[in-house]
Amino acid sequence: MDSIEQLFKQYYPFVCTVIRSYVKDKAITEDIAQELFAELWVKRDQLNIHTSVPAYLRRMAVSRSLNYIRDSKKHDWDELDASTESAPGLSGQSASAIQHMEEAELKTRIDAAIEDLPEKCRITFLLSRQEEMSYAEIAEHMQISIKTVENQIGKALKLLRIAVAEHRGNSK
Amino acid sequence: MEKTNDIRIGLYLSGEMKGAERSQFERELTSNSDLNAAFSASQRIWDNTRQQESESWDAEGAWNRFIDNNAREQKQAKGKRRSLYWAVAAALAISAGIYSFFIASQSPTSYAYEEGMTTPIVLIDGSKVYLNKDAELKVYPFNKKKRHIALSGEAFVDVAPDTDRPFTVTSSGTLTEVVGTSFNICQLGDKTQIFVNSGKVIFSAEDDSNTAVALTKGEAAVFGNQKIELIPNPSPNIISWKTQELRFAKQMTLTEIVADIAEYFDAKIVVENENTKTCRITSPLSFENPEIKSLLTIVATTVSAELVKEDDTYIIRGGKQCL
Question: Which residue of B41, B63, B103 is in closest CB contact with A5?
């Protein structure tokens, strides 16, 4: 049966997973997913999708998540994380620890480390890595400069290297 | 400012770094062991970043909530009967939706007037298009730079403001560009007529921007023979098919009034007495959801004439010469 029901049930978990990587709250994630499908339903006759359905839903999910984050902040992106500019460098030893870490362990640590990144840093990194957006696209989506995107990705990688090597025992 | 190594690693891994800069970076990797260590660690992290799998999601429960919310909205908007059939309608309608899901093309989506159509076609940007009888609309996929539609027949367009994306309409040889306004566009034989209801539009021949005229609220123009002419004192009833309201301004002649009524109802109306044709009404009249017979009776009364109907023609008969 080709129906909205099928579409909904097939892609709901996928859409939630995407939203959840940007929006940390589970209930809000589900609200955003509901709105996304409602919009899809309202505009069903005008949809003109030039990519695959998951790619389209993914873009919708990302842009709605970013809108939510922007709207819910009292501050600009730039004020979100003024700190952590001078994190210490990474020793050769830690770098080698990352190289030799077992893959499953590494992935778990990366997940935790990403969760702990400052918000702007985390979102910039995910848009680049996960959504495969260009820096220019990220800048447009987040309404920040390309220079800021460069800085944030660089910073994300640095913080991730440190966090993964040290693994501060994230309990969540 | 010099880019830090962290920034350069990011640029390299994300594929932003190109050409000579990229080769230079790769050369440095072999000679600079600190850079190499930081890069290798970053690359391993980059390659092992996966879609974060968080909780599990209850699609079944979410679907019930979805149906609940959206079916209720339909119900509130359209009365009670709908919700029962909504699920069925959803299944039918989405086959059209799925259809467009899988068509990857720049081809426009087409709409045609349907009998009894009173609600507008709402475009993806929120703009609304009301189609009059026999009208057809083609909506080209909107993008970041432009919104474009093509029309034949008569339509009323209410454009959602968006200064970054001009809204353009082609209609038998004319190009109308707008920035958030509403207007009526109509093809009459080989002519195209436009009436601006609010805001401002630029109206021109499709292939000749030199013909462009700027029209504002209440103004109208017609295009024919590659020329655009302004219409002096356009009738406010140009959009009455959409507003369901007929308005007659002071000083309109009986002929003009009858022409608007005939147009609105698509009816044949004859004024028999030549003397009454140039009579002007002395106070403005307006009718909401008018009914033809009572409306014509009122109009006939203003010139002391009577209304008769022969076959499908209304006749305004008799009446006094006006002052």
Answer: B63
